[in-house]
Amino acid sequence: MKRTLHVKDIILITLIAIIFGFIYVASDNIYNFLTLILTPIGYGPLANDITMGIWCMAGPLAGFIVRLPAAAFLGEFLGSCVETFAMAQWGAANFLSGFIQGLGNELGFTLTGYKHYGWFTLFLSATTTTIVTYLYDFFKNGYNQFSIFNMILYFVVRWISMLLFSCVLVKLIVNLLERSHVINLQTTQD
Amino acid sequence: MNPSLKLFLVLIISLEVSLKANLLANLILIFISLIYLFIHRVSLKELLGLIFVPLIAAIAIFIAIYYYSPAHDLIYAWTLFSRLYTFVFLGACLTKTTTATQLSRSLEQNMHLPTKFAYGTLAAFNVLPKIGQEVKRIHAAGQMRAMNLSFYSPRLYFKAILSAISWADGLNDAMQAHGFRETQARSIIDPIALTKKDWLLFILLLISFQPILFFLYI
Lengths: 190, 218
Fold this sequence. Notes:
The complex is a heterodimer. By secondary structure, chain A is an all-alpha fold.
């Protein structure tokens, strides 16, 4: 029988998203601190790219724990909906970013057909998220005004952040979960 | 206005604003949102919060575009500055006048969102304060063992996810015990109206915004 998302999965996915939101907000001073340091040299928006990987961790993790289509998207998107109501920091931008980031996350899992779960999946997901969110910020945050060098710099920084957090850190968390048999090991491994 | 329609209106307009640069349209949206928030008696303290929280990021974007980009485009810099506030105030129009419960009920009743999404998300939303406590508890427990668990420690997330899994189980059991079945139709205690007037207002606002965004320039 084909498994579909049940209410328990949806609760779990949302809870995971909220946890990541909380830990991020708890360390929100990192973002403000980075912005303050970088603004005088004209790289203020770079703080967004440096911390982007932390924002996008909930999606891949939800995708790994609940191994079903749409889990990664929902992890990111539902989390942003809850955050919009609970913290209301960025207002409607939260909804939209959550939606775009969710799409990026999901794409990585779609490209592996929801069958292969390992390093490669996370690498793909991190990369697709980087591309999708960068394209959106290209217009939304005015990256199209930057010099070519800066455009590339912002992209590379975002990608590195994504690989560090949404790929390496998520994999380390997944390893802990697998070792404690929270996630069953029957699916394909690297 | 119906909560679902309000959500869609805010989302559509925000998406348009995020892709099309128009300073005047941003300012008009902020102004209208402010009036809407005043009518709904949002306190001054909350308004000040809305203004100060995104301020650093807004200034950062302004400086990067005006002083450090090749074009030094002042109008564009102000556009991006005001864009952040457009998002914040539009979002506030939704979140300060509608509760999450109203919105999820409306999405379920008016937009036929499957109940498992409406109630699953709501269940998680309602344990939000507990999650904050749990993260703090894990952090404190780590410090007692001389382990500093920060945002880059896998162990912090691992422990928090274990709690989330047990909460999801508990909430699921509780909902089942109270008679929640995801495949069954539900009776409605608190009906949320979706009238012709709501639709009319929605369409009218959306259409009247288009010329402002695409044809009105300073």
